[in-house]
Amino acid sequence: MKDVTTKLSYGLYVLTSWSDGKPVGCIVNCAMQITAIPASFAVSVNHDNFTTECIKKTGKFAICILAEDSDPSLIGTFGFKSGRDIDKFDKVGYTVESRLPVINDSCGFIVCDVINTMESETHTVFLGAQVAAEQYGDRTPMTYDYYHKVIKGKSPKNAPTYRADSEQAADAPIKTRKFKCEICGFVYEGDELPEDYVCPICGVGPEHFTEIE
């Protein structure tokens, strides 16, 4: 039986906040506008994400909308690493808008004050009132479908749409040899995987790649 939930549309965003004056953030794919006047937005974040703790403490969050041509390493940094362990913003260009860090390499941002929350078994849904927003140029937003089919990445395990059994499915018939990153799911295609190859998403070396059929 086919899973109809895969037909739902998702985007790809970096959700940001603060931790004792340090910018923090994580990748989310569930962000939506709830009302237009006044403007309000909802985001869903896994309980295990450090960003969830920070939003609960600060009562604020920013939604940074990734573009199709955003640097893929943003997904590796914010989707497959923890702000408890590293400074995700160390090599990422950002500015502070309405007292929140926002990613420069994006379509733009929406800053919100938290006005309500809802808890599920695994995720917190934050409802926020918009306090600021800005569009950067006329870039094309990255959809979750684009991320899977073009960038060929997999879902972070804390994503609302993550399913361990579905991550093994191939996206297209094999035309050349394929090597899959065991960390982020990026697929390299070619005759051989170079010895000095570095994953463009999560930055690991060839030792973390496995050839797939």
Task: Walk me through what this model shows.
The chain has helices at residues 50-58, 73-79, 144-151, and strands at residues 13-19, 22-28, 31-35, 40-46, 60-65, 94-97, 100-103, 108-119, 123-135, 178-181, 187-189, 209-212. It is mostly beta strands. The two termini are 25 Å apart. The protein contains 3 helices and 12 strands, in the order ββββαβαββββαβββ. 11% of the residues lie in helices and 36% in strands.
Strand count, sense and closure of the main sheet?
7 strands, antiparallel
Give the fraction of residues assigned to helices: 10-25%
Radius of gyration: 17 Å
**Unreliably modeled segments:** 155-163, 165-174
Q: Quick one: overall form?
A: globular
Percent of sequence in beta strands: 35-45%
Q: Which descriptors would you attach to this protein?
A:
3 helices, seven-stranded antiparallel β-sheet, globular, mainly beta, three-stranded antiparallel β-sheet, 213 residues, 12 strands
In short, what is this structure?
With 213 residues, the chain is mainly β.
Provide the fold topology.
Elements: E1 13-19, E2 22-28, E3 31-35, E4 40-46, H1 50-58, E5 60-65, H2 73-79, E6 94-97, E7 100-103, E8 108-119, E9 123-135, H3 144-151, E10 178-181, E11 187-189, E12 209-212
Antiparallel strand pairs: 1-2, 1-5, 3-4, 4-9, 5-8, 6-7, 8-9, 10-11, 10-12
